Structure formats: structure tokens, C-alpha cells
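Reviewers of the previous submission asked for a worked example of the structure-prediction workflow described in the proposal, so we include one complete record here. The input consisted solely of the amino acid sequence. No template or homolog information was supplied to the procedure at any stage.
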Amino acid sequence: MNEVYQHLYQVLQTRMGPNGNLSPGSRNATYTVHTTNNEWTRERRQLHRAVLEEFKAKYGDRPRDGRAVLLTAGAPGAGKGSAQANLAEWQQENSELGRALADAHGVDLKHYVPLDPDEFKVSIFEHGGLPTLDAELMALPYGRELSPSEMASLIHEESAYLQDNFEVWARSQGYNLLYDATLKNLDKNTLLLGDLGSVGYEQRVILSVEVPLEQCLAQNADRWMNGRIKHEEGDPDYAYGGRMAPEGMIKNLYAQSSTGRGHSIGRENAEKLADKGLATALITTDRGTFPTQATAPTQAAVFQQGDTRVSIAAAGRLRSTQATATQATATRTTPPAQTTAPTLPRQTPPAPGRTR
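From that input alone, the workflow returned the following C-alpha cells.
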């Protein structure tokens, strides 16, 4: 990264950090500006309605099997998007790895409804919902201005609120679900997977993606810089700009891990969820050099694919606590009963700091 972009990156990281004017808790955040007595304003509810209807139309033709869940784990910048692309490609290979992935997962990723807060941030931008900042706050060094993505922290709570509403609708309609998550919060994800299992989501796969901390930070910075450059060049595919996460958040995810293996807390929690039987499969990918070599789960298949080490504890090898006698005799073979989704989203925003 050259000196100009390195300086821009550090300025943005400072402004996105605690007490910064681009942080989620800032007075400029849309949660603060567009709520009264903990309810969204009328104008904002209209924007929410438009965004949610757009997402329903975009993903409404996906299969409504109501049986499969894919939950990612890993820090922002670790490469979860690339890992999903690899999973889609590798599980179709006529190879030992392909067969193992097909056995553990096997679902076409285009058959999921994605639950990704970043998608809602982009949609808020496209619907004209970004914060209105004065010229001083919009300004960056070297005569530049904030790109839409660099204001993403200011719409963090709002995008989470929209994702929650969309998730309620998608589950009520029986869609397969892809949760883009860090897996920071063990308790919330324990409840989530337990609940999904209890209502008939028979396949619950965790895709845990890890790289060493310094590599993660570098990838986070590179992703932003590449997007920023294309945004400045006027590339229409980068009207939103380059995405980045606050480095403090990334470091915290690694600091919370107690294993000493150089992973984020997402890997530790993924393994705990698997050990509890809440996942029907655990797929892990590791790139880079870690302090100690990770130990694959018991009975897991291990493969080296280029620079990526893949571990697969296939379906059936992890014991599901949801496989009660009742479920064994009443396995769902048809989509879940459909309910009518509410025409309006919930008006009460989530509590600040919500994370999964």
C-alpha cells in the first residue's frame, strides 16, 4: 500500500474507532438521527419497506426446502467470501475432496437466501439512505471525500435491523439460509442453531475460515484500497467503494480466543457448537502460518488444496442433539407451512452492539 492510501486508511480507522465520528455510536449514526422514542421515523420506515420488498423480489425464486443452513465463522477480512466460492466449486469436483464436501454440505450456494448485513448497507446507499454529513466530516486528506462504504459504520445498526426483519420473513417462507457471521457470540449462535434444528432445518453446516491476525489485517486493508482505487476511477461496479472493518474489532476477535492456536474466537465457538451437536457438519479452512498446527475434529477428513488446508467433519459424524426420537420418526419431507410475512418491518430497532 503506497503512502497516500496508507495514510487514508489510518485516518479512516481512527474515525471508525471508539468515539470516532464514523463509529456506530456516533451522533451521526442513522439509528440516532432517524429514531424517536426508540422507533424509526415515518420516512425511514418507508425506506425500510422499499429495501425489504427489493430483497424479497431478488431472492424470492430461491428453493423453499426449509431444511438447510450454512453459517460462516471468522473475522472480517479472513476471506469468508472466497471460502464460499471455493466451497461452491470444490464440492462439484470428482475428487476425494469434492465427495467429502458434497457429503457434508452439497447444497448449491445459489439455493440459499443470504443474510449479510453488508448487502443491506449497500441497499440503504442505493435507496438514498446514507447519513447527510457536512463538508468538514465528508473531507479526507489529499482532497478526497468519504465514499459510501466508508460511512458503513454509521448505518450498522440499521442494516442489522433490516437483516433481522428479512430473516424473519425468509424463515417463515421456508427458504434455506446462509448466515454471514463472525461467530463471536457463542450463546446467541447456540440458541440460533438449536432453534433452527427444532423447526426442521435438518442440515446445519458451519464454514469456519481462518488466517493469522496480521494476514487478516492486511487483507482487510487491501480489500479497502482496491475498492477505493476503482471507486476513484469511476468504475460503476465500485460506486459503493471499498469495504473495510475497524481493526480494533478484528483484533478483539482474535484476542478473545483462548486456544493459543492463532485463530479468532469464531473457530473456537464453531468447534464448541459442533461438539454440542448443534451443527451437522463443520468445514474449516486455514491459510497462512499459525503458532501451532490446528487439530482437526475427531474423525475429520483433512485435505490440502493449494495454500488452503481444509478439514471436514461430515454429516453423520457429528452427533446431533436435535435427533430426538420425535424427530427421527417425524423427519420433514415437505417444506414448512407457509405463513404470511408482515407487510411492515418491526419498528423497534435492535439494541446497539448486536452481533452474531
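Residues 99 and 251 are 35 Å apart (CA to CA). We consider this example representative of the routine output the project will generate in years two and three.
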